[in-house]
From TrEMBL:
Keyword Signal: yes
Keyword annotations: Receptor, Signal
Name listed for the protein in its UniProt record: Tripartite ATP-independent transporter solute receptor, DctP family
Region forming the signal peptide: 1-23
GO function term, MF aspect, one: carbohydrate binding
Length: 327
């Protein structure tokens, strides 16, 4: 009997060591701060995965671009050095041009249209058909709401944008959009934006209005223009090595937990943008301007004609318009 009990104890100890050996913590690179709706969703995802895998899969987040810019850590993901990363559709457009279709200004007119398009299996297939060729894999998307403009000088309509230096990402689509708006597109690292506006390097930026409060940009940018021109999508992508390391059952849990938080962000993203903008108005004295967007929509029409010259982008645009019920 004693030998039997001893054998059980040894078996239990071996099993415990096996579980410990299988447990791992994976690097997750992000270029945002650990606050706001996107960060909340990521933390929720990580907690859900850790709980359901009983600690076998954990994530360590590297916030605020500690591992470099999105372009930089995407390269590390492709090499398998970093396991996961938050990479937006503008960054991915530089790698896979078809992503330019979902970056076009006013391609999504409402949050409902956006959700229908992004959850459509055919759209997902088109966007990520070549992901494996670039040595990364999609996990899912997080909605961060519509993007608008905020500036350090008073602007009431499109004419007021003429000549203003507006910070943007290094995306051909975003640069051309701002040029057609009449502004001077100025690529600048997000981490340099606050000082850039303070010092007059730029006169403002395009982005979610929540940044006026969450990122304290409202201390400098005192005019928020509700232009709602684009809905930049934050994708979580993984290295191919990450997927190969995980037990299939654990990978399924990771995918399920991300799908759960993804659905949640669509519901809260716009609410958060509006609430944060109102807080910026209250605490920082930001003036929110409901600008007439019709002239902006008219200004960017040439971008659609240009985008349709690429067969892949044209097909994706046709699919998006079919889903949205527009011609």
């Amino acid at each position: 009997m004693k030998l039997f009990k001893k054998a059980l104890l040894i078996a239990g100890a071996v099993a415990a060591l096996s579980v410990q050996a299988e447990a791992a913590t994976y690097k997750f690179a992000v270029n945002i701060a650990n606050n706001g709706s996107t960060a909340e969703a990521l933390n929720n995802f990580a907690a859900g995965v850790e709980e359901r895998t009983e600690g076998r899969v954990k994530f360590k987040f590297f916030w605020n671009g500690v591992l470099g810019s999105q372009e930089s850590y995407l390269q590390q993901i492709q090499k398998g050095v970093v396991d996961l990363g938050l990479v937006n559709s503008a960054t991915l457009e530089n790698l896979i041009p078809t992503f330019g279709a979902i970056n076009l200004p006013y391609v999504f007119r409402t949050a409902e249209e956006y959700g229908k398009v992004m959850d459509d299996p055919a759209v997902k297939d088109v966007l990520f058909t070549s992901a494996a060729e670039h040595r990364f894999a999609p996990l899912g998307y997080l909605s961060s709401g519509f993007r608008s403009l905020y500036v350090t000088k008073p602007v009431e309509d499109i004419s007021g944008l003429a000549g203003l230096k507006i910070r943007t990402m290094s995306s051909a689509t975003y640069i051309e959009m701002l040029r057609l708006f009449g502004a001077v597109p100025t690529p600048l690292a997000r981490s340099e934006l606050f000082a850039g506006m303070q010092q007059g390097v730029v006169d403002g930026a395009e982005g979610g209005l929540a940044g006026l409060y969450d990122g304290k940009l409202g201390e400098v940018a005192k005019w928020a223009l509700k232009t709602d021109q684009t809905r930049l999508t934050d994708f979580t992508v993984t290295s191919l090595d990450f997927r190969e390391k995980l037990d299939p059952a654990d990978l399924k849990i990771v995918e399920e937990e991300f799908a759960r938080v993804s659905a949640g962000t669509l519901a809260v993203a716009d609410k958060h943008q509006n609430e944060a903008a109102e807080l910026a108005a209250k605490e920082y004295g930001v003036t929110i301007v409901d600008i007439d967007t019709a002239p902006l929509m008219e200004a960017v029409k040439p971008m659609y004609a240009e985008a349709r010259k690429d067969e892949g982008t044209r097909k994706l645009l046709d699919k998006i318009f079919e889903i949205e019920g527009r011609e």
